[in-house]
Design goal:
There is one protein chain. 37% of the residues lie in helices and 0% in strands. It is an all-alpha fold. Among the domains are: 55 residues, no CATH class; 31 residues, no CATH class. The termini are far apart. The model has no long low-confidence stretch (mean pLDDT 75).
C-alpha cells in the first residue's frame, strides 16, 4: 500500500506561512472587513442621522443615493414618482434616423473572373528597375542620338581633355609624392 509523506522539501518556510499565524490573520481580516462593510444607519430610511453625521465633518460633501434609498426602503415612493398614471412618453423605442443598411451590407467579392484574377495575382516580373530600359514603352533614341554643338563635340572627342596621361607625358598617376613637393618648396 502506498503512503504520502509530507517532507520539509520545497515547502513555504516564512513565518507568514505558518498555519497558526494564518488562522489568526484570517480572523483579523474577516473582522476588519465586516466592520468596513457594516452600515450603521441601516434602520434609518430617511437618512437623517447619516446626513447629520456627514455634514458635521469639515470638507465633506454629502451626496445621497440616486432615486432609491439604502436597502431599497423607498422603492414604492420612487416608483410612484417615476411611473405616473398618465405617461408623457410612449414606452416604445424611438428611432429618429433609419440606418442606411437594415443589415450588414454584403462585403463579398461578387462575380468571379478566374482568368483576369490569375493575371492580376501573378503580374509581370521586371528585374531591371531603371527608368530607361528595353522593356520601357517610351522611345529615347531622339535624346541619345542628338547632335552636339561643334565646339562641345570637339572637346568631348579630344582625349587630351579627358585623360590626364594623354594631356601631359610627365603626369604621374596619383600625383607627385609629398616628399618631392617639400623639396621643391625648400629650394
Amino acid at each position: 500500500m502506498a503512503s504520502v509523506q509530507d517532507f520539509t522539501f520545497f515547502n513555504m518556510s516564512r513565518i507568514g506561512n505558518d498555519t497558526c499565524s494564518l488562522n489568526e490573520t484570517d480572523m483579523q481580516n474577516v473582522k476588519h472587513g465586516n466592520y468596513m462593510l457594516t452600515n450603521h444607519f441601516a434602520n434609518d430610511c430617511a437618512m437623517k442621522k447619516p446626513i447629520d453625521f456627514a455634514l458635521t465633518q469639515p470638507n465633506v460633501n454629502y451626496t445621497g443615493s440616486h432615486q432609491v434609498g439604502m436597502g431599497g426602503c423607498n422603492i414604492d415612493t420612487n416608483s410612484a414618482l417615476l411611473v405616473k398614471k398618465v405617461n408623457t412618453s410612449n414606452k416604445c423605442k424611438l428611432n429618429l434616423q433609419e440606418r442606411p443598411y437594415l443589415t450588414v451590407p454584403y462585403l463579398g467579392k461578387g462575380s468571379a473572373d478566374p482568368t483576369l484574377e490569375t493575371q492580376i495575382l501573378q503580374g509581370d516580373s521586371f528585374t531591371n528597375r531603371k527608368s530607361v530600359n528595353p522593356s520601357s514603352e517610351i522611345c529615347y533614341t531622339q535624346y541619345s542620338n542628338y547632335p552636339l554643338i561643334p565646339s562641345i563635340k570637339d572637346s568631348v572627342a579630344n582625349p587630351s581633355n579627358l585623360i590626364e596621361d594623354a594631356a601631359d607625358s610627365n603626369w604621374i598617376r596619383g600625383g607627385l609624392p609629398s616628399r618631392e613637393l617639400t623639396r621643391d618648396n625648400n629650394m
